[in-house]
Amino acid sequence: MSDDRKINELTEAAGRKRIYSAIQPSGQLTLGNYLGALRNFPKLQDEYDCVYCIANMHSLTVRQDPELLRERIYNLLALYLACGLDPEKNVLYLQSQVHEHAELSWILNCYTYIGELSRMTQFKDKSAKHADNINAGLFTYPVLMAADILLYQSDFVPIGRDQKQHLEIARDVADRFNKLYGKTFVVPEPLISKQGARIMSLQEPDKKMSKSDTNAGNFILITEAPETILKKFKKAVTDSEAEVRYDEENKPGVSNLINIYGAVKELTTEQVEETFRGARYGEFKMAVGQAVAETLAPVREKYEALVQDRAYLDKVLAEGREKATVIAAATLRDVYEKVGFVV
Ligand code: ATP
Ligand code: LTN
């Protein structure tokens, strides 16, 4: 059953459920962020109560230039809107503007074990990448993420596959807290789409496409010009065979391109293989590049107009902050009461 069908059935059975997700403003967003997360958000806005956060507090776990970070916050908000998220239907807000995140995060720190956090692959990867700055925030990152999700009593969390481990911590912590103090948090479930959940780097297809990659040939930006997109796909790594066939282990480059094409055109792996049976790699890569460029063009156009309008973006943030605070404050108050604080 498709994820969309599954959630539809769940909504019908139990009334309006809450969706929650967040993206860090730590760089320009890639095709990976788009296919793994962002593209799925607007599909949910009519049937769910949706809350989308700009996770700027998470971004501080890696050194950021302050002016650039501020700009990227606006860029990400403009991109949320450009992808079709309606600020009337969704709560769109900035994490640091709702102080309850930091407060709940501290509480949850006291209900999360070092052993659990030590197993996180993102922590291991990022510590290796930023060996000169293995800060405590990088280690407790999943706790802040759990606080984000649990503050809003979220039922479903649409994410890429790399975030699944973090979501499991959020579930375990919610469960642990509920067992100790009685039902306090909804235990969230991940929503991971089958296609596009893990887009790999174009030059090094054994690692995920990441916006903080230092080699620009590895990723496609959502706002990139069509010519650049085509050029990057033309240079994408394939293999020495000449067959468009899905085989993640032996043909990671081609498999990634099949995945991307399938996700963009909404085709299964088999259908993509069928479409390109007998095609040369050059032709195949151009077709993937074109399909991606066509999909991203309207988003880029809308983004370019929206990002200029700071007054409007500030208005959206102010409204989002207000709506988010109402929900977050109610949960935090309950938590403070349960743990024995005077409120
Ligand atoms: P960074 O490289 O700065 O750690 P990132 O590119 O991994 O960032 P995030 O802000 O951590 O991006 O992720 C935002 C959302 O995009 C998450 O739901 C994540 O799972 C998803 N995502 C990120 N990269 C990919 C990818 N390569 N394929 C599919 N989904 C992805
Ligand atoms: N860690 C996430 C971003 C994130 C998030 C969240 C995602 C922060 N808080 C809450 C879903 C729910 C990432 O994508 N790197």
What does this structure look like?
It is built from 15 helices and 5 strands. It is mainly alpha-helical. The chain folds into 2 domains: 225 residues, HUPs (Rossmann fold, 3-Layer(aba) Sandwich), CATH 3.40.50; 88 residues, Tyrosyl-Transfer RNA Synthetase. It has a 3-stranded parallel β-sheet with strand order 1-2-3. A two-stranded parallel sheet has the order 4-5. Strand 4, helix 10 and strand 5 form a beta-alpha-beta unit. Helix 5 crosses helix 14. The chain is globular. The structure holds adenosine-5'-triphosphate and L-tryptophanamide (LTN). The site of L-tryptophanamide (LTN) has 14 residues, from strand 1 and helix 9. L-tryptophanamide binds next to strand 1 and helix 9.
Brief write-up:
By secondary structure, this protein is mainly alpha-helical. 55% of the residues lie in helices and 7% in strands.
